[in-house]
Amino acid sequence: MISRSQVMPLLVGACPGFADIWKASIAEYGEELVYVVLGDFARYLLHCKKGGQLDELARAGEVIERLHVDGDADVREIATIGILEAIQNVWGNYEADPESFRTFLKPESARWWQSLNDFWEGKVRYVGDGL
Question: In the chain, which end has fewer C-beta atoms inside a 10 angstrom radius, N or C?
Fold first, then answer.
C-alpha cells in the first residue's frame, strides 16, 4: 500500500525533471503542504506538454494510476484532488485544454477524472459519487 510519504518520490522518479522544483517547494513551504507542491507538478506537466515531452506525461499517468490503485485512502485523495484537479485547474488557467491530459490516464484514474468533471458540471453531489 502506497502511503503519503511515498507520493512525491514516486512522482519525481517518474518525472525526474520535477526534482529541482520539488526541492525548491520543500525549501519554501515544507513537506506538509503537498497540495501546493502538486500545483507546481501540474504546471511542470503543462511545461512538458508544451515542450513535446510526451514520455514524461505518459510516466506521470502511470504513477497517477498506481496512486489510485495501490494507495491508501489519503493517497487516493491526493491523486484525485491533489493531482488530477490541479491539472484541470492549472492547465485551464493557462489556456491549455486539460482534456488533452486524459489520453495519458489509465482506467481508474480516468474514472476519477470524469468524476471531477461530473462534479464541476453539477451532475454529482461530490467527487466519487456513484463510483
Answer: N
| All structural domains of the chain with their residue ranges | 4-105
Helices 107-120 + 54-70 axis angle, to 10:
90
Q: How far is CA 116 from the centre of its chain?
A: 12
Query: Inter-axis angle of helices 107-120 and 85-93, to 10 degrees?
Result: 60
Match 519554501 to its residue by C-alpha cell. Answer: 28
Rounded to an integer, what distance in angstroms lies between the CA atom of residue 61 and that of residue 114? 15
The whole model's pTM is what?
0.93
CA distances from 10 to 21, 60, 61 (A): 15, 9, 12
CB 71 within 8 A of CB 79: yes
C-alpha cell at 26: 520543500
Residue closest to 87 by CA, chosen among 29, 33, 22, 40: 40
